[in-house]
Design goal:
Length: 833
């Protein structure tokens, strides 16, 4: 085809895309529906012109033949779509719903393939393997249409997360299954057994994921070594999905799964490796590429609809209905059978019935289904009858979902009540309007004074605006509609939203690194969502989650204890310190926000309660920071210095900007000064080394209990002691167990709970000795409240040490007296000096 004609056709397609979007908004239809209609209309026109003698030239006639290959969709457009969706997912928030997402993405695909295949087989001329192949093809869902509708009607964020996650992994699983069954069709195996796929299918998925993660990691490390070249970094991201797809396919694994794996890895690791501005540009570029790819794949696929349906028969319409009914049945089985069952055994969070109904009706099929059907129809190794039926049934089912489900999905969502604001959200909107109008009044007053406008006009407009503000405040203060409990929830939601804004402000001020801001924002969003759902209890539980040790921390401790690898634990401790330091500052700012904004809307009682809840969170953060100080005093001091340096650099940068704006310095000098600040900031971002290794000789020398020992005795003691690492929340001594060892705290802190009386012990102190000496079961429960390093001695070695150390004997007696325990001195071995 002539290059000029190709460029012209491409330009026309982009014009079609540009017109379709506003047309869809005006008609209140899904964007993909309009693209399908326009594409099918153009395809019908092209088919009509080609079959008639319209005096067309050979090149134009060749173009009207629409020589579009499935490889264009699968190699060019599909990696773009999947990679962009992978980059845009909130992976940390999706973890909360990973069970329903995984069930809908993998188990639902398998169920749909089997149900559709076996339901269609009695009525179709295809063998069973052909029916199963069709089932895999129509199992792919189109997220773009559904998510766009959900956003337009303000559907809940959790529903959109489930649908996006399902659609991403759904496509990967379905395409891998498609390749599995296509192999059997080409080999002429009519009825494959399910057992035959158990060895192949997991390798397709697992191998593809491994390839994607490896290549994604290589790409991220490549970006990291070129920090001063943002365009080069973005260019690496553009190459990544296509190289990953091709490499995976050449290795015989799923290229689609590999692209998803690479995208997820860049999603998680990219923000900590790239500058904030570079990451934002990368996301914007991929958003644009995905928009074009999604629209082009739909238009080009829709162009082929008339050709795929040229040989349609009345019986085919019945088969399309069979496919639709089987697809609904399989999806309903998962939504109302499997997910509630998983919920019953506490393996899945609750998915509300309205959500399930929206997910059921929102299973639209789109361009990926058409592309897979086209791949079958152009495959020379596939029998003709299978080509014909798959082309017609897949295309017909796509049109059914678009024109039946797609055009009614908006109304279904509204009927289910998902588009309506809850009473709590409605009340919150009134509060927001009142606050916004009060702020506007203050800003307008300043603007009026600055521009010296006519007094009469100002007076009339002020009266009009004042009436509007008064009405908004009255609606916000209506007590009949909002209970005290809801007012507290509203105040907490407002507080959580403000906390998220404070995090963003700190990030813009470069007080929080890109590495940590994603995690802190994820925690803030979780705080908002849990508060909306569960009020005060949800706020408390969500706020505690951000400072408690999770499964990642436990895994890091295990790796450090068992394998001696301290890197993961060191990074985790450093992250924890940075987060706690910033969180403490943000919580202090929130008190001022309550006094300035919240009190006027929610009243004194709610404001006082919010202050109390914030103080509790501050105390928890202070305790956690105190624990880190006890454990790593020199390291935490260096981290505090590093924080102060970053704040000072930001203030210095603002001063230079003010001088530039006032014309006191020129752009050249300003650029030079900012360059120096950037270099200093890079140095301040480098974390000090956290040494988790325990040098027992040095630690023993620091214990006052062992100060009277000579070097030989210290070396012998170091050999007798063994090191024990504990994480926050780990129980070190359980009440009622037999005492077999005594602990010395080298770093960190523990909490000793005896009959409800709690006492904290820190560096240089010991515990566990009294029960062992008195030969009684433990009366106390001791819990680590920090990442602690302990030295432990068994009973025999401790008694031997006690017999030779007067200072240790005195410490044991003093500890017993402090607890009100009368220790029989005969239990103590005679000191040998």
């Amino acid at each position: 085809m002539d290059i000029t004609l190709l460029v012209g056709i491409t330009a026309i397609l982009f014009l079609v895309i540009s017109i379709s979007e506003p047309l869809a908004a005006r008609l209140r239809l899904p964007y993909s529906v309009v693209l399908a209609v326009v594409g099918a209309a153009l395809g019908t026109l092209a088919l009509g012109l080609q079959t008639t003698d319209a005096g067309l030239g050979p090149e134009l006639r060749e173009a009207l033949a629409l020589p579009i290959k499935s490889s264009v969709f699968l190699v060019v457009f599909l990696p773009t779509l999947l990679f962009e969706v992978s980059l845009g997912l909130n992976v940390r928030r999706m973890v909360d719903d990973w069970v329903p997402i995984l069930v809908m993405a993998v188990l639902a695909v398998l169920a749909a393939t089997l149900v559709i295949g076996f339901a269609l087989h009695p009525f179709s001329s295809m063998p069973l393997v052909g029916c199963l192949l069709l089932g895999a093809i129509v199992s792919t869902t189109d997220p773009s249409a559904v998510v766009s509708i959900f956003r337009n009607v303000a559907a809940p964020q959790r529903l959109m997360r489930i649908v996006e996650g399902e659609s991403l992994l759904n496509d990967a699983a379905a395409i891998a299954l498609f390749g599995f069954f296509l192999t059997y069709v080409m080999a002429g195996v009519p009825n494959p057994t399910l057992l035959s796929g158990f060895g192949t299918f997991p390798w397709l998925l697992g191998g593809g994921l491994l390839v994607g993660l490896v290549l994604g990691r290589i790409a991220v490390e490549g970006m990291r070594v070129m920090p001063g070249h943002p365009l080069a970094q973005i260019s690496v991201s553009v190459a990544l999905p296509y190289i990953t797809f091709i490499a995976a396919e050449e290795m015989g694994v799923s290229g689609v799964v590999a692209v998803v794996g690479a995208g997820l890895l860049l999603n998680i690791a990219g923000p900590s490796r790239l500058a904030p501005a570079t990451w934002a540009q990368l996301r914007e570029l991929w958003g644009l590429l995905a928009h074009w790819a999604g629209a082009l794949i739909f238009v080009l696929a829709a162009l082929l609809i008339p050709r795929l349906l040229t040989d349609v028969r009345p019986h085919d319409l019945f088969l399309i209905l069979v496919v639709a009914a089987a697809a609904f049945a399989s999806r309903a089985l998962i939504l109302w059978g499997v997910i509630p069952a998983l919920r019953a055994v506490k393996l899945s969070p609750r998915v509300e019935p309205a959500y399930r109904a929206a997910i059921l009706w929102g299973g639209l099929r789109g361009a990926v289904t058409l592309a897979l059907a086209l791949a079958v129809t152009e495959n020379a190794l596939v029998p003709g009858n299978i080509k014909r039926e798959i082309g017609i049934l897949a295309t017909g089912y796509v049109l059914f979902t678009l024109f039946v489900q797609g055009t009614t999905l908006r109304r279904v969502i509204r009927r289910l009540g998902l588009a309506r604001l809850s009473p709590l959200d409605l009340a919150l909107s009134n509060q927001v309007i009142a606050v916004a109008l009060q702020n506007v009044r203050e800003e307008v007053a300043d603007s009026v004074r600055e521009h010296e406008l006519s007094r009469d006009i100002v007076r009339s407009e002020a009266k009009r605006f004042g009436q509007r503000l008064e009405n908004a405040v009255q609606r916000a203060e209506q007590t009949n509609e909002i209970s005290d409990r809801e007012r507290i929830t509203l105040g907490l939601v407002a507080l959580a939203v403000r906390e998220r804004e404070e995090i963003l402000d700190s990030f813009r001020e470069q007080l929080i690194t890109t590495r940590l801001v994603e995690r802190m924002l994820s925690d803030a969003e979780y705080l908002i969502e849990r508060t909306r759902q569960q009020g005060r209890d949800g706020y408390r539980a969500a706020s505690r989650r951000s400072i408690t040790a999770g499964p990642v921390a436990r895994a890091a401790v295990i790796v450090h204890n068992r394998l001696g690898l301290s890197g993961p634990l060191a990074n985790l401790v450093a992250d924890r310190f940075d987060i706690l330091l910033n969180q403490r500052t943000i919580l202090r700012h929130l008190h001022l926000y309550i006094d300035q904004k919240v009190r006027r809307l929610y009243g004194r009682r709610v404001s006082d309660l919010l202050h109390e809840l914030l103080k509790r969170r501050e105390e928890e953060a202070e305790r956690a920071l105190e624990s880190l100080h006890l454990q790593y005093p020199s390291y935490t001091e260096e981290m505090e210095r590093r924080y102060i340096r970053r704040a000072a650099l930001r203030m210095e940068e603002r001063q230079y900007k003010a001088l530039l704006d006032d014309g006191l310095i020129g752009p050249e000098l300003h650029a030079t000064l900012c360059g120096a600040i950037a270099r200093e900031r890079t140095k301040s971002l480098t974390r000090p080394r956290l040494d988790l290794a325990v040098h027992k000789d040095e630690l023993i020398r620091q214990f006052p209990l062992f100060s009277g020992m000579d070097e030989d005795q210290r070396r012998a003691l170091a050999k007798a002691m063994y090191t024990f690492y504990a994480q926050p929340g780990e129980i070190l001594v359980r009440r009622g167990e037999t005492a077999r060892r005594v602990f010395f705290i080298a770093s960190g802190a523990v909490e000793n709970d005896i009959a409800g009386e709690k006492r904290r012990l820190g560096r240089g102190e010991m515990f566990g000795q009294l029960s062992m000496l008195m030969r009684k079961t433990r009366a106390a429960q001791v819990t680590s409240i920090a990442y602690s390093t302990l030295l432990a001695l068994d009973e025999a070695r401790f008694r031997d040490l006690l017999a030779r150390n007067r200072e240790l004997q005195q410490a044991v007696v003093d500890s017993a007296r402090a607890r009100g325990v009368q220790l029989d001195l005969d239990l103590l071995p005679a000191a040998g000096g």
